[in-house]
Design brief:
The N and C termini lie far apart (87 Å). The protein has helices at 2-35, 102-130, 136-162; strands at 40-47, 49-72, 77-82, 89-90, 95-99, 164-166, 171-173, 183-184, 189-206, 218-223, 231-238, 248-256, 267-284, 295-302, 308-321, 324-329, 336-340, 349-357. Helix content is 24%, strand content 42%.
Length: 368
């Protein structure tokens, strides 16, 4: 009985010791945290600027030449001459290839002889008809035969002409698809011909933008081949009706291409530039923190002791372009905001300004 009492007393003493140690540890941690210096986060800041900002309607599309065709043979025949090299620049009417015309030329000689005979026959029947020596039916038959003979001559001349395949307009030729002696059928491709002096681009925009677009409006595009360059053009046409299935309206823009950098088939990002808006608040996109609960920025303001602190301010991003964002919210032009280092911040964090930067990108074009 006495041994049981001793064991219980020992356990109680051990538990009391453990509890006392836990209380001591908690008080020590609290004391350390209470006396620990407040952490200071090093950040870069930039001033909010009020700038002019031209919004733009974004879209994508594919470029095509102002004139571009796949040149093909209109009639069948054997290739006897090729008058171009791949990639050559040609003028309108340049002979690209000729097909064999020996048979058609022989037939043309026969047809012309038949025309001469038909003319003599028709003249004879006209003379006889004036004296009633021939019937009107015989004269009509002779004149019909003359017309058919002349039509046959015209048909053969057109066939011979089509066997001389010519460039329909000035441009740059593609790869040659023919060989001397090759027999081609009607519709066989000879090469491609593209007029690279100007480019067209068809794209679609929401019908809500219809009041804001007009023919002659400025349009800008970028292509993957030249990501650092912007090509400028003009809106050249607007489809008169809205697509019932998508609710979009088709538009077309034209772009000068004197240097030939743009090529048919290129995909491009397009911006139809809208009128400039003045005094819009602009910040770097890196300064905006995005979340499911709203977008915000950190504004650097002094506390009661004059020490800089980062304060969360909810904003609304109206537009983005390059590395800039146009915003609205509880911030004013000239205020300093955190442009780098915001991931380590919380509302009210003490900060140290490591560097003051400036907005570097052109602010005059934005995306809607």
């Amino acid at each position: 009985m006495k041994r049981g009492v001793v064991v219980v007393s020992g356990v109680a003493v051990a538990l009391a010791g453990l509890f006392g140690f836990a209380m001591f540890k908690e008080r020590a941690v609290n004391a350390y945290l209470k006396n620990r210096p407040e952490p200071v986060v090093s950040v870069d800041v930039v001033k909010v600027e009020a700038r002019s900002w031209a919004r733009a309607i974004p879209a994508t599309g594919r470029l095509e030449a102002v004139n571009g065709v796949d040149v093909a043979a209109e009639v069948a025949g054997r290739v006897v001459a090729i008058g171009f090299t791949s990639g050559q620049a040609v003028t309108a009417g340049t002979s690209l290839a000729r097909l064999d015309t020996d048979v058609e030329r022989a037939q043309l000689q026969s047809a012309r002889a038949q025309v001469r005979l038909s003319k003599l026959t028709a003249e004879r029947y006209r003379s006889l008809r004036r004296t009633d020596a021939a019937s009107q039916a015989k004269l009509d038959e002779a004149e019909a035969n003359l017309s058919m003979s002349e039509a046959e001559v015209s048909r053969l001349e057109r066939t011979i002409e089509k066997k001389d395949i010519k460039a329909p307009f000035a441009g740059v030729l593609g790869i040659n698809r023919l060989d001397i002696g090759q027999y081609v059928t009607a519709g066989a491709q000879v090469t491609t011909l593209q007029d690279l002096s100007a480019m067209l681009m068809d794209f679609s925009v929401s019908q809500k933008y219809l009041p804001q677009i007009s023919v002659g409006q400025a349009v800008e595009i970028t292509v993957d081949a030249y990501p650092e360059r912007t090509f400028s053009g003009r809106l050249s046409a607007i489809e008169p009706k809205v697509d019932q299935a998508s609710g979009l309206i088709a538009v077309q823009a034209s772009f000068p291409n004197a240097d030939g950098l743009l090529r048919p088939g290129m995909y491009a990002k397009v911006r139809a530039v809208l009128p400039v808006e003045e005094n819009r608040l602009v910040v770097p996109q890196t300064a905006v923190s995005y979340s499911l609960y709203g977008d915000f920025i950190y504004v650097v303001r002094p506390d009661d002791k004059g020490e800089p602190r980062a304060h969360q301010v909810v904003v609304k991003v109206i537009d983005r372009h390059d590395n800039l964002a146009q915003i609205e919210g509880g911030v004013k032009a000239g205020e300093e905001i955190v442009s780098s280092g915001a991931v380590r911040l919380s509302n009210g964090s003490k900060v140290k300004v490591a560097e003051k930067t400036v907005l570097r990108s052109k602010p005059d074009v934005g995306l809607d």
